[in-house]
Amino acid sequence: MYKLYIANKLYSSWSLRPWVLMTEKLIPFTEQIVPLSEGSSWEQYRSFAPNGRVPCLHDGEIVVWDSLAIVEYLAERHPGIWPTDSIARAWSRSAAAEMHSGFSNLRQQCSMHCSLRIQLHQISASLQQDLDRIDELWNDGLQRFGGDFLGGNTFTAVDAFFAPIAIRVQTYGLPLSPNAAAYAQRLLGLDSVQSWITAGTQEPWTEINHEQEVLQSGTLLADYRKGSSKPK
Ligand SMILES: N[C@@H](CCC(=O)N[C@@H](CS)C(=O)NCC(=O)O)C(=O)O
């Protein structure tokens, strides 16, 4: 049985990718949540991941780290991880790779947080540039392959890579064109994504730096955590 090491569901966008993919594809695994430490989690994470980061997949003696490598490892063992059509597959791999190595403005200015709703102080030019490219990319995939998901009619790894963006769209009310916004809503409507968000909002751990970073980005509109005094 696979064991997937992840961080807090509330915050960990990298962990969400393989988790949502394995859940959607009904690949059996056990999850091990290792909450982020204040500052660095290096020491703790090094006990199971050579790069000191999550996600990390253990398959018996085999250790696979980095979300993209995990997805490719799974693609060698399970059907349906990438689209079957080779053109859709090449496009999906390109889009997932672009997400993996890009969109740093969006990542930095809108950290993932499942339970909060934030009105950003401003949408900077660099954030808008990332949003424009995501909008363009999503519209391209949806139109080119004509399905509900980016590479066609079925959820595949490329959709898993963009699931954290859909959560950010919800948290920060990020503006998108109608087709792109509808795609984000489709991702948010998946049982797997809903179950991740619910679990995140019920977690007992918080990481103060992450909380502060998110709160400093805008005005707090709501916090759906249990016991929270928000919505305001
Ligand atoms: N490129 C890596 C990035 C992994 C990553 O940065 N994970 C974060 C958690 S969301 C982490 O482990 N952070 C450890 C720390 O902050 O000390 C991947 O795709 O898996």
Give the gist of this structure.
The protein has 2 domains: 2-75, Glutaredoxin; 86-196, Up-down Bundle (Glutathione S-transferase Yfyf (Class Pi), Chain A, domain 2), CATH 1.20.1050.10. It is built from 10 helices and 6 strands, in the order E-H-E-H-E-E-H-H-H-E-H-H-H-H-H-E. The protein has helices spanning 13-24, 42-45, 67-75, 86-101, 104-109, 125-145, 157-172, 178-189, 191-201, 208-216, and strands at residues 2-6, 29-33, 56-59, 62-65, 116-120, 218-223.
Give an account of the 3D structure.
With 232 residues, the protein is α+β, with helices and mostly antiparallel strands. The chain has ten helices and six strands; from the N terminus they run βαβαββαααβαααααβ. The strands form two sheets. It has a four-stranded mixed sheet with strand order 2-1-3-4, with helices on one face. β1, α1 and β2 form a beta-alpha-beta unit. The relative contact order is 0.16. The structure holds glutathione. Glutathione (GSH) is lined by residues 7, 12-15, 36, 40-42, 45, 53-55, 66-68.
Share of β-strand residues? 5-15%
Q: Could you say which structural class the secondary elements and strand pairing correspond to?
A: alpha+beta
Distance separating the two termini: 44 Å
How many domains make up the 3D coordinates?
2
Return the CATH topology of the largest domain.
Glutathione S-transferase Yfyf (Class Pi), Chain A, domain 2
Low-confidence stretches: none
* Morphology call: globular
In helices, the fraction of residues equals 40-55%
